[in-house]
Amino acid sequence: MKSIQRLFEVDPWKIKTKALDIENRRLQESLTSIGNGYMGMRGNFEEHYSGDHHLGTYLAGVWYPDKTRVGWWKNGYPEYFGKVINAVNFIAMDVFINDQPVDLAVLKPEDFYLELDMEKGLLTRQFTVTVAGATVAFRFERFLSIVKKELAMIQMNATVLAGEATIRVVSKLDNTIQNEDSNYDEMFWQARNQVATPEVSYVTAQTIPNPFEIEQFVVTTGMKHNLSASDTSHTPLTAEQTFDFHLTTNQKMSLEKQVIVLTSRDIPEAEQVATLNDLFATFGNDYQTLKAEHLLAWKKRWELADVLIEGDDAAQQGIRFNLFQLFATYYGEDERLNIGPKGFTGEKYGGATYWDTEAYAVPLYLALAEPNVTKNLLKYRHNQLPQAQHNAQQQGLKGALYPMVTFTGIECHNEWEITFEEIHRNGAIAYAIYNYTNYTGDETYLQKEGLEVLAEIARFWADRVHFSKRHQKYMLHGVTGPNEYENNVNNNWYTNTIAVWVLRYTLENYRKFKNEATIQISESEQAQWQAIIENMYFPVDQELGVFVQHDTFLDKELMPVSELDPIHLPINQNWSWDHILRSCFIKQADVLQGIYFFNEQFTLEEKRANFEFYEPMTVHESSLSPSVHAILAAELGMEDKALEMYERTARLDLDNYNNDTEDGLHITSMTGSWLAIVQGFAQMKTANQQLSFAPFLPKAWQTYAFHINYRGRLIFVKVDSEAVTFDLLKGAPLEMLVYQEHVTLTDQIRLPLR
Hints:
Helix content is about 30%, strand content about 25%. By secondary structure, the chain is of the alpha+beta class. The strands form eight sheets. The chain has a nine-stranded antiparallel beta sheet with strand order 1-9-10-11-12-19-16-15-14. It has a five-stranded antiparallel beta sheet with strand order 8-7-13-18-17, with no helix packed on it. Strands 20-26-27-28-31 form a five-stranded antiparallel beta sheet. The protein is globular, with a radius of gyration of 27 Å.
């Protein structure tokens, strides 16, 4: 079991600490990230900090196509890979006391306190320093408005506790920031304009040209304060306003900074400055009013989304942290956007979209947001269908291949084993259409746009398989399954399974909605697809009673992770890639991913045999891994294992399980803690459009409770040591299954826990 050293105290609603951990500053910054779906940032300090840290601010949909630099170019490689780029540092407020800089990497602060209030969406920090004969207590507070998406607010207060102090604050807009992952210290921004006045200052910057016909983004960032500046200055890509305060003992100062950020995704460059001034006037500058509406909006979100856990504050903190960061990243307002794996918290993984969204995020948003939020995720993929067709053509294949990593729909991942081989992601796009339709009961999307996407994915699979004359079976060679610790394998069971499922699901619904459909599937295509469905090869071992991960998996030296010396873990940070690829160790659910997706197709005995065979060899070094295992373990009655996996997914970042959170949070996998409780502990399922539950209560917990939206209804579910209670808060009565027995929910039902 991992030895846990927590940077922050356990608190149900807060991420807080009294320690400035200089050695783990990057990790602290990741864990105190904030966002509002339009923009976000790591938990950087406002004032200058000279110690090791990662300064990061990111804007939704603003990126750069960087050239794929490889000396072994292959046909089909993407021309570029996508980079989320570090944008303007608009929180900067360098502070001086009697001309001496306040730098917490150099000074030793007293009374340090850092807090992310997840309930309110507020980041606060306070500390006391003695500099140049004066002792001064500082407090900073900031938020990114979830009501006014372009708005950020920073409040700085200082009190002189002893001595006299001239406090100078140089408030800045700094667009000279570079990416940490850039090639050859590249700068991705070029100056367009900058203006600094005592009242309002702004910087306009544009992304540098690229040779790939990708639009250059223009961003204008403006700032104003509650006071008029005593001095101003600007250079290319920066603007500064200076404020001086002359204070004696017990005197206080307060400075409020209002920032508005506009991008050319929404406002053309020629209109940005005028729009900026209009928004400053419209929003007003009353900090408390703007803060109050922000707090109210978060309150409304939590009324639906909160999961209440009694008896385990660490578990409670974990799921609230994950939900907070998810909703700070994406809340469905913009169908042009998707959920980046790092959100606004770091640059790793580059792209804005992985298959994580369809596989892991869709179920949560279906239950915790209005249906149009999930529909926007589906529209995102439908809008990019031509690009997916381009991706398939690049591989010499028919149909559509949705990308592993993308901003626009064009594949921009530069690792061959991903771009060429991890094609199972195509199936997840189709599965999301099924998931939406099955959960909401709304077939209108499936009938037209959905079938357009499904048909092209099916055409890809039909072209990608080959027929083995020796075995008289269709096969898929040269693939990488969800277990990325194996590359270029033949007949990955999960990939073969989801390929056949897509073909079958597409055929069934084309025949059902042929008159409404906007596409045509020829009789010859239908016959070919049916032949593949009936004759696909699936590796199975009858003696072990398991679906074999791929053709040669059982030829490996098989051993459980428990036999490894813990010094080898995580193996991705201690072993060579060659060693990993030859080992039996599994990064994440692979066979079990298929059993999770298509749960109703397998017997309990099949689920148990495969779980007991594969889970002991799984190192869970993908953030996506624990939740699937928690859900299946719960169904199999392995309550301790289910809770272990919940704790791992709920506190993956808070406890830095994989020793990589300093690079940024694992946003898309944060859905896993909700999935583990709702689909795991409560066993909520929607197979065949039938809602069902079979809850259990973890031994260490006193109760857990959550809301779900389901087909126009709002249902509150509470599980305690004696019973499970269902309250129908809104909508028509509902027939459902509880412990495999039919019940009708009209108002409230309370049933004994089994």
